């Protein structure tokens, strides 16, 4: 049995779910075929593992690896790491994460959101922009749905303190255990429209009065960088 299938089987075991469909319903995923998508991508969202571990009080490390760890083996996917100043310069290191923000039909970043390094930014520049280092994350964009604004493999900075949707800037959002970067438009009746800049991709409607449990706004894109090589 593959590692992914083993994780899914442990998820079923502790939730008393016999089928993939029952597990999708337990997790309140938007599609009952979501589990099949996990298998096809060979990845299981960390957010869903964390949710089950909390709800049924099982060890998260065991749920993911099959071995008891006694504690979560991943950092909190929302809370940023402590940012330390760079010695000898007016710089602070902003953590860069392994996760990708999908600018497409959905990437798989929410499972292994581990800091893989950091990049230096001017403390003075951050202060002028009203950005607090502890709220910031660096991630890569995956896909072309936000072109021409954001291109595949662009680096973006997310401010996790800015979670109120506006049309001024794109936002990182979590939906069905995956992370996306989209523009957010408010519609009449309280709906939110998750919009791609690339018209090839269809918009996603979220009822803000009754949003799915799997939906949350992670933060606003406040900076991005693009390389032509």
From TrEMBL:
Q: What range(s) does the Bacteriophage CI repressor N-terminal domain occupy?
A: 7-68
- Example GO BP: negative regulation of DNA-templated transcription
Question: Any idea which UniProt keywords this protein has?
Answer: DNA-binding, Transcription, Transcription regulation
- Can you tell me which residues the record assigns to a coiled coil? none
Q: Which residues form the Peptidase S24/S26A/S26B/S26C domain?
A: 99-222
Does the record bear DNA-binding in its keywords? yes
At the top level of its lineage, which domain of life is listed? Bacteria
Gene3D superfamilies xrefs: lambda repressor-like DNA-binding domains, Umud Fragment, subunit A
Spell out the molecular function terms from Gene Ontology: DNA binding
Note the PANTHER family from the entry: FELS-1 PROPHAGE TRANSCRIPTIONAL REGULATOR (PTHR40661:SF3), PTHR40661
- The entry's protein name is Uncharacterized protein
- The organism is Candidatus Endobugula sertula
Q: What is the lineage of its organism?
A: Bacteria, Pseudomonadati, Pseudomonadota, Gammaproteobacteria, Cellvibrionales
């Amino acid at each position: 049995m593959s590692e992914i299938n083993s994780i899914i089987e442990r998820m079923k075991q502790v939730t008393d779910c016999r089928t993939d469909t029952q597990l999708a319903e337990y997790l309140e995923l938007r599609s009952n075929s979501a589990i099949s998508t996990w298998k096809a991508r060979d990845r299981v969202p960390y957010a869903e593992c964390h949710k089950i571990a909390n709800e049924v009080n099982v060890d998260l490390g065991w749920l993911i690896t099959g071995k008891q760890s006694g504690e979560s083996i991943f950092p909190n996917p929302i809370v940023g790491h402590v940012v330390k100043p760079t010695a000898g310069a007016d710089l602070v290191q902003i953590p860069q994460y392994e996760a990708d923000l999908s600018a497409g039909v959905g990437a798989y970043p929410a499972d292994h959101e581990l800091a893989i390094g950091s990049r230096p930014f001017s403390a003075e520049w951050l202060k002028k922009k009203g950005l607090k280092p502890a709220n910031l994350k660096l991630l890569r964009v995956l896909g072309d749905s936000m072109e021409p604004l954001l291109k595949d493999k662009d680096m973006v900075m997310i401010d996790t303190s800015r979670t109120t949707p506006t049309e001024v800037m794109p936002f990182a959002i979590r939906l069905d255990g995956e992370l996306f970067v989209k523009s957010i438009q408010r519609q009449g009746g309280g709906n939110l429209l998750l919009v791609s800049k690339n018209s090839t991709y269809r918009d996603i409607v979220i009822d803000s009065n009754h949003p799915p449990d799997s939906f949350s706004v992670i933060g606003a894109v406040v900076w991005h960088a693009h390389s032509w090589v």
